[in-house]
Design a protein that fits this description.
61% of the residues lie in helices and 0% in strands. It has 54 residues and is an all-alpha fold.
Length: 54
Amino acid sequence: MEPARRLSLLEALFQRPRSVLLAALAVTFAGVWAAARLPIEWVPKVELPSITLS
């Protein structure tokens, strides 16, 4: 990668702070999930109330 191209890539990333933040959060979340060794199918054990419509 050329130095000028690398610089333009960094400039592009810094011009998009929201996308960089979201990518960092996604990687962090995936790392925490992997460290906790939770299966992908894991969901909290919450019992929802049953509602009947008549």
